[in-house]
Amino acid sequence: MTIAVNTRFLLKNYLEGYGYFIQETFSRIVRNHPEHSFVFIFDRLYEELFLFEKNVKAVIAGPASKQPLLWKYWYDIKIPALLRKYKADVFVSCDGICSLRTKLPQCLVIHDLAFLHHPSFHKKSHLSFYKKYTPKFLEKTAAIATVSSFSKNDIISQYKIDPDKIDLVFSAAKDLFKPCGDEEKSFIKNKYTDGKEYFLYTGAIHPRKNLMNLLKAFSVFKKRQKTNMKLVLAGRLAWKYESFTESLKSYKYRDDVVMTGYVDEVELVKITGAAYGLIYPSFFEGFGVPVLEAMKCNVPVITSANSAMQEIAKDAALYINPHSHIDIADKMMLLYKDENLRNQLIEKGRSTAEEYNWDKTAALLWQSIVKAIENSR
Questions:
Q1: CATH number of 2-172+358-375
Q2: Is this model's pTM higher than 0.90 or not?
Q3: Residues 6 or more apart from 351 whose CB is under 8 A from it?
Q4: Every domain of the chain and the residues it spans
Q5: Which pLDDT tens digit goes with each residue over 135-192?
């Protein structure tokens, strides 16, 4: 069997969300299924490190698809031609977009429907594309995989999709996320925060991540506690970051906010492991991987209620109303003042994180791929 895979998000030094998901699942799938051939389809020059095993063949199908018109061309013109050329049995796409111009069975991974719930957080051209074509993708594909019950229920509610067509595959945190030793914690704190304790946010600097309310909450926390605690924001500048960085210039506690920019995985593990607590106040996520990353590092978590994060973290986190900076500040205070609570969250978090791993996710995704083929027979 030949499995064609959309791997355009496997970008060295730029791996996030989709890229990490593809890397972690397909590095395992190709290894676990040497009897099958895999065609990885890139839209630009690729790195050899992403060709995980000998049963993987890389194909470049340009141009780089960076905007909706090129997406349509790539998925509906370039992809069908390659599927025919390499006699593929199935096409797998992990970014919520499939080809509408092939009769081949497809397995589509959709992480969330954020564009429906927070349209202002998306470029207008992207928003129009997703609104117009997502229902067509869902109808076209033979099997749908998603990463949480939260997202599955949302897909069913918004598009009236048969629940049996949607498979839960979850997501996970990488094995390299582990607790830091005291010496390493001290080194990281000296490197980033002059040796001070810090709350941490990890992820892109983007309106959906709710960082303006996090800044407001940090102000309230600092005023109440008179502490030298810092706030570290570890992630790249993404779309519409300008208003946030402008606000930061006049922010009263600017000297206590550290922006690291994009950091590689090894450094991110250290930054996470040395944190006093993770605050992940995102308005909307399909899963929320940073929550599990922190838990694997023995770092307590504050995150958004009524979200995928609450489904994933269960009773192992403190939950906030992401629209209330006062509530965020209150939970920061609670975590700061109650050492017993903090230790309980660390213990519960460690146990919860063990429920999710990439081996399980890869196995579940493989089942969904096989289901796509069987459903088309």
A1: 3.40.50.2000
A2: yes
A3: 316
A4: 2-172+358-375, 182-353
A5: 999 999 999 999 999 999 999 999 999 999 999 999 999 999 999 999 999 999 999 9
